[in-house]
Amino acid sequence: MMKTQGMVTSVLLVVVAAHLMIMTEPTEAFTCLDVAPNLAACISYLSGIDSRPSQICCGGVTRVRGMCVTTDDRRLACNCIKEVATRIRVIKESAVASLPIACNQPLPFPISTSFDCNSIP
């Protein structure tokens, strides 16, 4: 009887461990909820209120750039940035396009509300 209980316990532990491995398998490294707050400080630059992006804004651009490791990451970040940009009522397309350069943090894709993010290699 003791041997049977030990085997059942071992089997249960293996099943639980396998289930936890499946549940904790990584999905995406980040989401749009991670990108948007990093760009919140850029709104005054993107809308033309400020002539230069703030240090906080540029820090956010740097963090977003760091998220762009794989092709999927770059495409996701690109789409997130487009989504954020479309929410700003008064946006200067030239400011959007120049943001990474103005922050001295070029992104691996152009920023534009009309750019096809799925074309990123």
TrEMBL record:
SMART domains: AAI
Signal peptide: 1-29
Segments forming domain Bifunctional inhibitor/plant lipid transfer protein/seed storage helical: 32-117
UniProt cross-references to InterPro entries, sorted A to Z: Bifun_inhib/LTP/seed_sf, Bifunc_inhib/LTP/seed_store, Plant_nsLTP
GO MF term list: lipid binding
Any one of the GO BP annotations: lipid transport
Gene3D superfamilies referenced in this protein's UniProt entry, alphabetically: Plant lipid-transfer and hydrophobic proteins
Record's keyword terms, sorted: Lipid-binding, Signal, Transport
Protein name: Non-specific lipid-transfer protein
